[in-house]
Amino acid sequence: MEKAHEDSEKLREIVLPMEKEIEELKAKLLRAEELIQEIQRRPRHAPSLHGSTELLPLSRDPSPPLEPLEELSGDGGPAAEAFAHNCDDSASISSFSLGGGVGSSSSLPQSRQGLSPEQEETASLVSTGTLVPEGIYLPPPGYQLVPDTQWEQLQTEGRQLQKDLESVSRERDELQEGLRRSNEDCAKQMQVLLAQVQNSEQLLRTLQGTVSQAQERVQLQMAELVTTHKCLHHEVKRLNEENQGLRAEQLPSSAPQGPQQEQGEEESLPSSVPELQQLLCRTRQEARARLQAQEHGAERLRIEIVTLREALEEETAARASLEGQLRVQREETEVLEASLCSLRTEMERVQQEQSKAQLPDLLSEQRAKVLRLQAELETSEQVQRDFVRLSQALQVRLERIRQAETLEQVRSIMDEAPLTDVRDIKDT
């Protein structure tokens, strides 16, 4: 039980760090999914106002498309407020159509035919003053003007980012599937190893119980054999003593009996030949009976001695057999303990290999994926910041046009280089 408890503790110590690593990987995957969802939730390109023919473009190019700016409320600051303030005047400015402007400009030569030079100059200035606001298109709140080339470039970048996002999603799914499969394989291997350890422990407990029972039986049989051996030893000793006593009694009894018989014979010697023959026959019968009794007693003693020796040999053989069985059981127990130790060592080696080979690779892959996602997120944030800077630059230019006091200032502002790259924007 103590070994099983120690094994379970070791397994728990090995499995807990693996579970923590898996939880960390899952958390990182969740963060990556949140980043991907955040990128997906970002507004796509708004429908372009490029097709409108009633608005005069800011430059010579066609009117650029519009893009929603959700970041202006948090990052625009005073520029955003100024842009919103300018948007209030966009209704009056947008009332001037391109057709009207063209018509007025085409009708100027006809109306100037009957005017003096001073009146013509004044009319020219007035027409110029009315045409300049028509050429300024103020987008609705939350949108910014973008050139066509930059619009196409942004659309290409958006499609590329969408493809990258889909590839990252596929890689994330593949990574999750590989992680799930590796977790299942690890769990299956752990279950197999635990089942083997439990079977080995159960077999070891069974063998230990069998060995203990065999030891108890051997001890009981050894005690019985010792008791029987002692009894047999005492019995043999007693029989030997009886035999020696009988022999000692026989010799003295035969020794004094001779003189007494001689005295009796001398006293009662037969006086005739028939009496002598009868005495001789009686003496022979007594001698034969005594000899038969001695032989019978000796045979009985020999039989008892042989029986006791056979019993002693059987008990000795049984004892040797039990000792051999005990030795075999001990050897089998040692072999099983060695196999159990080898299984534990193999399980620890497999766990170490899994912890050293699989988890670091998965962690490195996850770190690489997270770093790539972070880089893509930073790129998208940089694009958003560039959009904000472009919108702020456009708002500043519109504010400068709005605050211009003369037409020359308006022309100089409009003749400036178009904003095609964020790097062209000067930090103010």
UniProtKB/TrEMBL annotation:
Coiled coil: 284-332
Molecular function terms, GO-annotated: growth factor activity; GTPase activator activity
Chaperone is among the record's keywords: no
Biased composition (Low complexity): 104-116, 252-262
Region annotation Disordered: where it falls in the sequence: 39-126, 247-273
Entry superkingdom: Eukaryota
Protein's cellular compartments: Cytoplasm, Cytoskeleton, Cilium basal body; Cytoplasm, Cytoskeleton, Microtubule organizing center, Centrosome; Early endosome
InterPro entries linked: Rabaptin (IPR003914), Rabaptin_CC (IPR018514), Rabaptin_Rab5-bd_dom (IPR015390)
An annotated GO cellular component: centrosome
Pfam families per UniProt: Rab5-bind (PF09311), Rabaptin (PF03528)
One example of a Gene Ontology biological process annotation: cell projection organization
Domain annotation Rabaptin coiled-coil: ranges: 1-40
Record key words, sorted: Cell projection, Cilium biogenesis/degradation, Coiled coil, Cytoplasm, Cytoskeleton, Endocytosis, Endosome, Phosphoprotein, Protein transport, Transport
Family: Belongs to the rabaptin family.
Primary role: Plays a role in membrane trafficking and in homotypic early endosome fusion. Participates in arteriogenesis by regulating vascular endothelial growth factor receptor 2/VEGFR2 cell surface expression and endosomal trafficking. By interacting with SDCCAG8, localizes to centrosomes and plays a critical role in ciliogenesis.
Protein's name according to its UniProt entry: Rab GTPase-binding effector protein 2
Species: Pan troglodytes
